[in-house]
Amino acid sequence: MRAELEDTGVTVTALLPGPTDTNFFDRAHAQDSKMLDEKLADPADVAQAGYAALMNGDAKVVVPLKYKVQTAIGSVVPDAALAKQALKKHEPKHEDAREEERPR
Predict the structure, then answer these.
(1) How far apart are CA 59 and CA 16, in angstroms?
(2) What CA dihedral angle connects 54, 58, 61 and 66, to 10 degrees?
(3) For the chain, what percent of residues have pLDDT higher than 70?
């Protein structure tokens, strides 16, 4: 899309946020996710970084810095290994939460 719009004056910036402190985990019925053990990105910081990148004409922005490092590592680690790691991070911390968190 970025290439298609190159000469139109329209810019495209991909915002690649890491886990962010929004209601996503509530909506996904994942309040017991191991992911919540990590510090979540502040939505205002994510939005500010996205806006700054857009105004600079950057192709993409990855926030926060920790996630930027993980994304770089992902370019050299096999997809299957990354998928397993992501699955583990999204598992419930407590066994009894596994059934409760599944949407019906």
Answers:
(1) 11
(2) -130
(3) 91
Collapse the DSSP code of 30 into the 3-class scheme (helix H, G, I; strand E, B; otherwise coil) and give the result.
coil
Distances (CA, A) of 99 to 4, 88, 94, 96: 45, 16, 10, 7
Q: Which phi-psi region, left, alpha or beta, contains residue 39 (left: φ > 0; alpha: ψ -120 to 50)? A: beta
Task: Please tell me the distance from the alpha carbon of residue 82 to that of residue 88, in angstroms, as a whole number.
Answer: 10
Q: pLDDT above 90 covers what percent of the chain? A: 38
The two three-digit tokens of residue 85, written as one number: 């790691």
Residue written as tokens 């993980």?
A: 70
Residue identified by tokens 């719009």 is 5
Which residue in this structure is represented by tokens 């910036």?
A: 13
Q: 65-73 long-range contacts, Cβ below 8 Å, gap at least 24?
A: 66/18, 67/16, 67/17, 67/18, 67/19, 67/41, 70/18, 71/16
Contact in structure between 5 and 12 (CB atoms under 8 Å): yes
